[in-house]
Design brief:
It is built from 7 helices and 5 strands; from the N terminus they run H-H-H-H-E-E-E-H-E-H-H-E. The chain is α/β, with parallel strands linked by helices. Strand 3, helix 5 and strand 4 (126-131) form a beta-alpha-beta unit. The termini are far apart.
Length: 177
């Protein structure tokens, strides 16, 4: 690895063993590239410890639209002991409707797999993927809607019409809010 990165073996060893207190980002990027990886850096606000504020706002917009006809539970566990998966929201009324909220769409295949396995392992009757209506998310869904249609065939209008009538939608769907 050292040879491929153009660095000395001792330098690579010090970085890997955390003996180098502050490796430079460009050095870490080279290390990652040699290993076939991409370095990613995340920056988080220093203020509130709540990291999912955008998702909470999205869920609150959805809650206002759904109204009081449905019982609302947050962070509902899916499996048994040791299974850390949960639905962001479960609506209970004439049936159980699971809701997973996404503020920014990334890997649609992974998202679809995750939704399908969570639905398979839960007692929910239907699944709603709640997506923030941003220009980026709308573009992603326009370009790739067909890929999700087998798992989430209904659109916002059909899902919300059923929920507003206090009915379980006749299929799973995506809601853009």
């Amino acid at each position: 690895m050292a040879r491929a990165a153009g660095l000395s073996q001792s330098h690579v060893s010090r970085v890997e063993n955390a003996e180098r207190t502050m490796p430079r980002l460009d050095e870490l990027a080279v290390h990652a590239a040699v290993l076939g990886q991409r370095l990613s850096l995340s920056v988080f606000p220093a203020g509130s410890p709540v990291r999912d504020a955008g998702q909470l706002r999205l869920l609150e917009r959805f809650r206002r639209r759904v109204g009081s006809r449905w019982s609302w539970r947050s962070e509902v566990p899916i499996g048994g002991s040791g299974d850390h998966r949960a639905w962001d929201v479960e609506l209970s009324g004439p049936g159980r409707v699971a809701v997973d909220a996404e503020t920014r769409l990334h890997d649609l295949q992974a998202l679809q797999r995750r939704c399908e396995t969570k639905l398979r392992d839960s007692i929910a009757d239907r699944l709603i993927l709640l997506v923030a209506s941003t220009a980026y998310n709308r573009r992603v869904l326009r370009e790739h809607r067909l890929a999700l249609s087998s798992t989430l065939p209904l659109d916002t209008r059909a899902v919300m019409a059923a929920l507003e009538r206090a009915e379980v939608p006749h299929a799973n769907g995506i809601v853009l809010l």
